[in-house]
TrEMBL record:
<comment type="function">
    <text>F(1)F(0) ATP synthase produces ATP from ADP in the presence of a proton or sodium gradient. F-type ATPases consist of two structural domains, F(1) containing the extramembraneous catalytic core and F(0) containing the membrane proton channel, linked together by a central stalk and a peripheral stalk. During catalysis, ATP synthesis in the catalytic domain of F(1) is coupled via a rotary mechanism of the central stalk subunits to proton translocation.</text>
</comment>
<keyword id="KW-0812">Transmembrane</keyword>
<dbReference type="GO" id="GO:0009535">
    <property type="term" value="C:chloroplast thylakoid membrane"/>
</dbReference>
<keyword id="KW-0934">Plastid</keyword>
<dbReference type="GO" id="GO:0045259">
    <property type="term" value="C:proton-transporting ATP synthase complex"/>
</dbReference>
<keyword id="KW-0138">CF(0)</keyword>
<keyword id="KW-0066">ATP synthesis</keyword>
<comment type="subunit">
    <text>F-type ATPases have 2 components, F(1) - the catalytic core - and F(0) - the membrane proton channel. F(1) has five subunits: alpha(3), beta(3), gamma(1), delta(1), epsilon(1). F(0) has four main subunits: a(1), b(1), b'(1) and c(10-14). The alpha and beta chains form an alternating ring which encloses part of the gamma chain. F(1) is attached to F(0) by a central stalk formed by the gamma and epsilon chains, while a peripheral stalk is formed by the delta, b and b' chains.</text>
</comment>
<keyword id="KW-0375">Hydrogen ion transport</keyword>
<keyword id="KW-0813">Transport</keyword>
<keyword id="KW-0793">Thylakoid</keyword>
<feature type="coiled-coil region">
    <location>
        <begin position="64"/>
        <end position="98"/>
    </location>
</feature>
<comment type="similarity">
    <text>Belongs to the ATPase B chain family.</text>
</comment>
<dbReference type="Pfam" id="PF00430">
    <property type="entry name" value="ATP-synt_B"/>
</dbReference>
<protein>
    <recommendedName>
        <fullName>ATP synthase subunit b, chloroplastic</fullName>
    </recommendedName>
</protein>
<keyword id="KW-0150">Chloroplast</keyword>
<comment type="function">
    <text>Component of the F(0) channel, it forms part of the peripheral stalk, linking F(1) to F(0).</text>
</comment>
Amino acid sequence: MKNVTDSFVSLGHWPSAGSFGLNTDILATNPINLSVVLGVLIFFGKGVLNDLLDNRKQRILSTIRNSEELRRSAIEQLEKARARLRKVETEADEYRVNGYSEIEREKANLINATFDSLERLENYKNETLRFEQQRAINQVRQRVFQQALEGALGTLNNCLNSELHFRTISANIGILGVME
């Protein structure tokens, strides 16, 4: 015990005790100052530091939770988008197949309609040709008949004199009279 009291007594005999000054002995003053500062910081700052760390921990945890929720939401949206993409691709394939078959149907319909139009035009052409042929034949007949009639009349007029003419008329009148 004497050693302990001696150490306190010896503290009172320090040359700088009782006066204020700078101690330039770094090795002697730094560990003491650091231990005092650390002790005060630990004693007074422990609650504040715990509160700051707890707040930071809560913010990090809430950020992680929010990130997880956003991740889950993004995964759900991605799955929905993939499902929509598959559906749209399927519909596009159906439209493509239906479109090709519709194009082929329209092509066949157009070919058939064109064939029908050509057939009608061919029939109309043939009818027009027959009509024109018949008209030409009728014109030729009329012309031949007219020329034959003119030739017969010319021959009759040259061959008939008034006496022959009179006898022909009388014979025709006689034939008409018998018919009555």
